[in-house]
From TrEMBL:
PROSITE patterns: PNPLA. A motif (GXSXG) lies at residues 35-39. This is Patatin-like phospholipase. InterPro entries: Acyl_Trfase/lysoPLipase (IPR016035), PNPLA_dom (IPR002641). Residues 1-200 form the PNPLA domain. The keyword Ribonucleoprotein does not apply. The active site is at S37, D186. One of its GO terms (molecular function) is hydrolase activity. A motif (DGA/G) lies at residues 186-188.
Amino acid sequence: MFGGGGSTGNAWSIGVVHALAAHRVDVTSAHLTIGTSAGATVAAQLCAASAAELFARALAPLPTNRAPSPPARRPPGAVSAQLDRTARLIAEAADPTDLRRRLGIAAIELDVTGPADWRDAWHATVRERVGDASWPDRELRVTAVDADSGEPVVFDPHSGISLVDAVAASCASGRAYRIGDRRYIDGGYRRSSENADLAAGYDRVLVLSPFGGRVRTPAAWRQGLAHQVDELRESGSIVETLLPDSDVEHLFGANAMDAASRPAAARSGFATVERRIDELRAFWG
């Protein structure tokens, strides 16, 4: 399971997968892969490129002559503004269902007042990130939330949409992303940035959580990764989680969209696996 975590979370997860592959632990062969937000991007990228290729890209320094940001890319301060906006909605919400509804309404309002070409620009941005990726033969699920109804959504190869559209919807944390006559927002709003509960019924579940399993919703809602892991274990699953080390937590959260920190995040993901490879190899089998 690939959890959300922004640009740095994407790089960290790539570092994890590359390190596992270097030790001949191939998590891309899992019976089920679930991607949420930036984790959906990782899952899609692995459909078109090897972990080694993606790791090399994550380590590459940013070009000094980058073109001006298109409308889909966030301007400085956008992450803080989004965090403030969602914090208010969380404080006002009565429960998870109410929160998803409020988040959907807010995202639709941003979409209505934003640039008219945002949807096409965002689609192009996501396509640039995932390349020629298309739905694989194996089971891949991508999470999102229907902005119009507030209902959770899980896309798969049978949903009738492209993988690029599914990832674009799963990563739409600000404005709502339109597919046909429906609009969607970030899959991290479904339950958490991991949505590990979707793996119920599987014998072994490996969860990559760049945000360290933390949530911003009230503890009483039981939305966090720890609660989901307990539920999975109670149902008979063997669960292993991989989280960033405490000394690199600053790379995530408010700094998750800092592309300049991708190399450090990727190396950190690789190092996390190196320290735990014996137990991870035994777990994966």
